[in-house]
Amino acid sequence: MNSNIGPSSPAASRVHHFKLVLLGDTAVGKSCLVVRFVRDEFFEFQEPTIGAAFLTQTVQLDDAMVKFEIWDTAGQERYRSLAPMYYRGASAAIVVYDITNPDSFAGAKSWVKELQRRGDPNVVIALAGNKADLEGRRKVEFEEAAAYAAENGLLHLETSAKNSNNVKALFVEIAKKLPKNPPQPEREAFPIMPQQPEKQGCC
C-alpha cells in the first residue's frame, strides 16, 4: 500500500496538498479518527470540537506524497450552519457514522446529500463506519452501509479509532483517488476556533 521512497527519489519530492473535511453527527468519533491518524493517539474521552479544528498529515504513496490539510468539524447541530465554510473547496470528505447508532447513519446520509448538492463536484467522499471495535453493540450492518456507498459512488471502510483498525487505510485510499496534478503551494489555513474543555465520550 505504501512505499518506502528515499528522500532523494523524485517521487518523494512531489508533495500534493489537499483540503479534507470530516463531517458527521456529534460523538461518532471524528476527532478520535483524526488524532489517531495524525498523532497515533487515542483518548477515551475526547473533548467535543468547537467549530472546527485544523491538523495536517502526509501519506506516502508509490508515486507521490499527499499532504492532507484536515478540517475536523463539530457535530453538534448548533454548528451545522458553519459546515459549508469548511467543506467549500475541499478535495475530499470523510463522512463518519457510529456503527452502534443508526441515527448517526441517517445523519451521515444527510451529510452526503449536502456534499453532493453543495460541495465541489469532484470531491472524493469516503463513508467511515467508526467504532468497529464495538461489534457486540452493532446496529448498522456492514452490508447496508456498503450498498449505500456503492449506490452513491463513495469509498466505504469500517474503522476503529480505539484500536486503529483501518484508520490509516482510510486516508491512503482517499489519497489514491485524488488527482496528482503539479504540486500546489501551501495554503493559509483559516483561524482555528478555540477549544473548550467539555468532556464527552466519543469513541
TrEMBL record:
GO terms for molecular function: GTP binding; GTPase activity. SUPFAM superfamilies: P-loop containing nucleoside triphosphate hydrolases. Keywords: Nucleotide-binding. Gene3D superfamilies: P-loop containing nucleotide triphosphate hydrolases (3.40.50.300). InterPro entries: P-loop_NTPase, Small_GTP-bd, Small_GTPase. Residues 180-203 are annotated as: Disordered. NCBIfam families: small_GTP. PANTHER family: PTHR47978. This is Ras-related protein Rab-5C. The lineage of its organism: Eukaryota, Sar, Stramenopiles, Ochrophyta, Bacillariophyta.
